[in-house]
UniProtKB/TrEMBL annotation, chains A, B:
It holds the Pfam family PX. The keyword Membrane applies. One of its GO terms (cellular component) is plasma membrane. This is Sorting nexin. The keyword Repeat does not apply. Signal peptide: none annotated. Residues 107-117 have a biased composition (Acidic residues). It is a peripheral membrane protein. Residues 211-321 form the PX domain. Keywords: Cell cycle, Cell division, Cytoplasmic vesicle, Endocytosis, Membrane, Mitosis, Protein transport, SH3 domain, Transport. The lineage of its organism: Eukaryota, Metazoa, Chordata, Craniata, Vertebrata. Residues 1-61 form the SH3 domain. Its main location: membrane.
């Protein structure tokens, strides 16, 4: 017997296996049992597939659901860093078996075996991966981020009306609570985060002790007498120069902490998970490259680089007790969500709200366009890579083989004076085959890195709608009661400063990364064509020497 | 009412519009009327299309045909230099309308308007273009060359049996008549052609006064007050340094003379004719390139370069009377066919016939393989050219456009420090588009010339089966009556010397041409990739200057 459920919000399917549903639509569910936050069911049009559990309310459970603050499901699926890779059909596809779902508690590494059982915070979700066209959907009530740690601190002391939409990012991030003065926590000096006024507007104060961190080739580790195996990455931060070993699940845990901790900071997405073939060379190399990019963005962010949980992650050695202690401390951190804003110091002169609004609007247009266009770039360069690895290679191979056929025919000639030419033509054939191989190898050097970069930036771009939403929520609230509450303005200023500082940081990093990557690409391409040229010059010489 | 005809020889269709027929098959003809040597009909399998007239015998005319020496048709079509170009479907296709047949009296130029009406010798045919697989068919009785000028001289004084097959190339070329001592003509010293013994065997004596000849871009000429127009080529041979103007039909006339004149010399095929679009730039340029190749092979052949008719063609100025005089002289030349062999002086020591036979066999295998393999090379490089002009170009354009899209998105950013990067990325996009254009232009520089060369050589390779057939015919005859007739041996030696000299010349020219063309190709390719490299270096600099 199929269960009935009412749809709470519009949902547009973005991956194979998902089905689209509309608000208030009645859908049938095949089972109450969720699989990583998804339910299987049928919509009113008869499409069968996966539905995000948090988007529907099961009708037979209606009353108890309503008591549960409107959340119909105890778990919210977080297919967060899926779907940012464009290469091939394998990426981002959601099999109906559900084996390839990507969540912070996915099937990738065996999470529970050497950690505390109680890790509810590892489920702290990000917004569902938004498609480029829906980065900023018309409806701003998409269920996205939910910070359960906020709820205990919510006091009802509002002089300004509360947001009725409990799913608003503004509410869930803690932005509203902070704005209404409901956030309260003790902030140590070490936790203070400074926004300073730079040449181009507010910016995060530079990290006085910048560092980087290398990630070595992962090694395969086993435990339980070889029954279980996993990959371990050696991380060496430059400020300690001591290597620590971490598994992907540790990155994943850290990621969840950071997302929860910093409502208006774009935490770089981790490279996608993969359920199968995780010990295959290609995957390992791709993940490592992704983690290097991720680490680079972490260490170059003045706020993220310095934060306690990241430092714990980078520096804690093999002492199990110390590790667990730091882990618990991070999970019980009070300065998350709304309280994060308490840690921020702003420049003395408050920002002009009009100007802030215009800047935010500009950035919104920017990110929308950037997201749209990098999708095109990514598709194009991945296509180009595929063509080079197949078509281009094949063409040069075919030409090479045909030259060799010519040489073979010429070898039937009994004239002595023909031998040198035959060898030269045969060598030319080899040269063309080699050039074909060069073409096949090249994309790995100069297109894949661009693609990796674009993937990382698509992650950032997917973060910003929520960040902007928090700032806009604050701005709207302040506009509702102008000049009445000085503190409200101050708090809105804090949120605006933090948002603009983050935007500034995004732009700086973007310019740095894209310049570096384009330069790398061009240098690689130049080297590539020079390699071809010298191969051909080599072939040409064979004709001279045999004249 | 359909006429019936009996098929005399196997014919395998090689072009659209033609149908295959087998010896002794009965076919229906739609009309007795020939179109340039072809009849329209239906074979026993029901295929409808064109049949070479000389391959069938119309049944109702049987007796009168037989009286006519077995030739059922007064004209033999000579679709000789068609079908050697591989690029695109337009080349070598034979429309059923017959408008695009290529014969020495084709529809290309209006032949009759300023020449004598009587030019029967312009019909002197070559063998039908043989497909690579059938260069040396098992049956050696393919009707091919017919030298009408031979017949008046045929005397019946044979002590050795005559070849019963009147269609054999051996017979038609005059080889048999010469061998049987039936050739007789006065040979002036100036007509004498020397075969000398070189390092690698018999070879044509070098031309003591070698020359070359340039062919200018053709100019469009009109006559009859603009009613008719034609292309005129300015030829300037280096030994006179005086330009003469010739039309394609003059080349065609010359070609027919040469084929008739030299039974064991491979006269280079003229570039193909084209009925339509003959004033279009591409065609004109292609034909001119073909004529340059042709001229190059003519002037570098010691025998062809020196012969009277070619010299007349190269040196006769605008004096109409002198031109016609030379023309008539050439058409009445006695030293054609069988008599050609009278002009040949051989080295004093006769060749070892066994060795000759083995060399000829080796060359036969060689030409067969070369023909097969250059078909593959030609197809491959033409495919490659097409891919570069379409696919490769498109890919680089797409990448260029996507980089420009990225720059466009980045331009929405209001940060001043981003401007330089945007311009650099946009420039990179332009660079990729330019590289796409380079790829599209390149094949014209380095693949088309190879293709032209291969076309020319396919022509030579199609000539050699007949040449070899003459030599083999002579050898067979001599084997039939060993040591009986010293003169027979001497004459067979002459034929063998001439054949081996021609083979030697072929190899020398081949090695020279392929070496030069491969070098040209590689130099072009090197320049091409260097051009790409400097374009990319240029783009790379934009990033530095804006840092």
């Amino acid at each position: 017997m199929a269960l009935k459920a009412r749809v709470l919000y519009d949902f547009h399917s973005e991956n194979p296996g998902e089905i689209s549903i509309s608000e208030n639509e009645l859908v049938s569910l095949f089972s109450e049992e969720e699989l990583e936050g998804w339910l299987e069911g049928k919509n009113s049009r008869g499409d069968v597939g996966l539905i995000p559990a948090s988007y529907v309310e099961i009708i037979k459970d209606r009353i108890s659901s309503n008591n549960n603050n409107g959340f119909s499901s105890p778990k919210v699926g977080t297919p967060t860093h899926a779907s940012y890779s464009q290469r091939g059909p394998e990426a981002g596809s959601v099999g109906s078996g559900g084996g390839s779902f990507h969540t912070s508690q996915g099937s990738d590494d065996d999470w529970d075996d050497d950690w505390d059982d109680s890790s509810p915070a590892t489920e702290a979700p990000r917004s569902l991966g938004t498609s480029p066209a829906s980065l900023y959907p018309v409806t701003t009530t998409l269920p996205a981020r939910r910070s359960s740690s906020l709820q205990p601190q919510a006091k009802s002391s509002a002089t300004v009306g509360r947001n009725l939409n409990r799913f608003s990012t503004f509410v869930k991030s803690g932005g509203e609570a902070f704005l209404l003065g409901e956030a309260a926590a003790f902030v140590k000096d070490g936790d203070r985060i400074c926004v300073v006024m730079g040449k181009h507007g507010p910016e995060w104060q530079d990290d006085p002790y910048p560092f980087t961190c290398t990630i070595d080739d992962p090694t395969k580790q086993t435990k339980f007498k070889g029954m279980k195996s996993y990959m371990s990455y050696g991380l060496t931060p430059t400020h300690t120069n001591v290597q620590v070993n971490r598994r992907y699940k540790h990155f994943d845990w850290l990621y969840a902490r950071l997302v929860e901790r910093f409502p208006v900071i774009s935490v770089p997405h981790l490279p996608e998970k993969q359920a199968t073939g995780r010990f295959e060379e290609d995957f390992i190399s791709k993940r490592r490259k992704g983690l290097i990019w991720w680490m680079n963005h972490m260490t170059s962010h003045p706020v993220l680089a310095r934060c306690d949980v990241f430092q714990h992650f980078l520096t804690c050695g093999t002492d199990e007790k110390a590790w667990k202690q730091g882990k618990r401390k991070a999970e019980r951190d009070e300065l998350v969500g709304a309280n994060f804003f308490l840690t921020i110091s702003t420049p003395t002169v408050p920002l002009d709200l009009q100007e802030v609004e215009s800047k935010i609007e500009g950035f919104k247009s920017f990110t929308k366009r950037m997201d749209e266009n990098i999708v095109v770039v990514n598709t194009t360069i991945n296509d180009f890579a595929r063509k080079q690895m197949s078509g281009f290679k094949k063409e040069y191979h075919k030409v090479g083989q045909s030259f060799k056929l010519l040489a073979q025919a010429f070898e039937l000639d009994q004239q002595a004076y023909s031998g040198g030419l035959n060898k030269a033509i045969s060598y030319t054939g080899d040269a063309y085959e080699a050039i074909g191989d060069y073409f096949a190898d090249q994309p790995r050097q100069d297109l894949d890195p661009i693609s990796d970069l674009l993937d990382l930036y698509r992650g950032h771009l997917a973060n910003f709608p929520d960040i902007i939403h928090v700032q806009k929520g604050a701005l709207t609230k302040v506009k509702d009661c102008p000049a009445q509450e000085g503190e409200l303005h101050d708090r809105c200023n804090i949120i605006s400063c933090a948002t603009l500082a983050e935007i500034q940081h995004f732009h700086r990093t973007r310019v740095r990364d894209f310049r570096a990557q384009m330069q790398h690409h061009l240098r690689q391409q130049i080297g590539f064509f020079q390699k071809i040229t010298s191969k051909l010059e080599d072939a040409l010489q064979r004709y001279d020497s045999e004249q």
